[in-house]
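Hi V.,

Quick status before I head out on leave. The structure for the redesign project is tokenized and pasted below; the design run finished overnight.
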């Protein structure tokens, strides 16, 4: 999982698995911290499962839009995390209308003997 993340080849299910793992580790840590720390295993878990786990889980929860990611079957970031990403999303959402307008303009410039045409957009 971490290898795929380092190469930016993660799936939505990978992010879900990481979030669930971190959340479960935090739950285990919190449970163990309420148990007698005189028991070596409980003390070691309490020390090893640091507050960083809670921070990581919080970051994932604040950044990853799991609902939208599942619906679109691709990694999606929540709005207002990064203005540049929000702008790119806005442009992408407006792309179909823009391309339809371009197709209409092209049709208007065609010879009147051509009654219709089909315009395809092939991203590079």
């Amino acid at each position: 999982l971490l290898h795929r993340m380092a190469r930016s080849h993660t799936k939505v299910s990978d992010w879900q698995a990481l979030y669930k793992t971190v959340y479960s580790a935090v739950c285990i840590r919190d449970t163990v911290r309420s148990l007698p720390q005189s028991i070596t295993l409980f003390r070691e878990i309490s020390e090893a499962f640091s507050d960083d786990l809670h921070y990581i889980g919080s970051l994932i929860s604040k950044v990853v839009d799991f609902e939208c990611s599942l619906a679109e079957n691709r990694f999606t970031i929540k709005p207002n995390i990064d203005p540049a990403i929000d702008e790119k999303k806005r442009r992408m959402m407006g792309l179909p209308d823009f391309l339809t307008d371009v197709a209409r303009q092209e049709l208007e410039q065609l010879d009147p003997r051509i009654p219709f045409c089909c315009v395809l957009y092939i991203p590079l």
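Above is the designed sequence. DSSP finds six helices and no strands in the chain.

G. will cover questions while I'm gone.

Best,
W.
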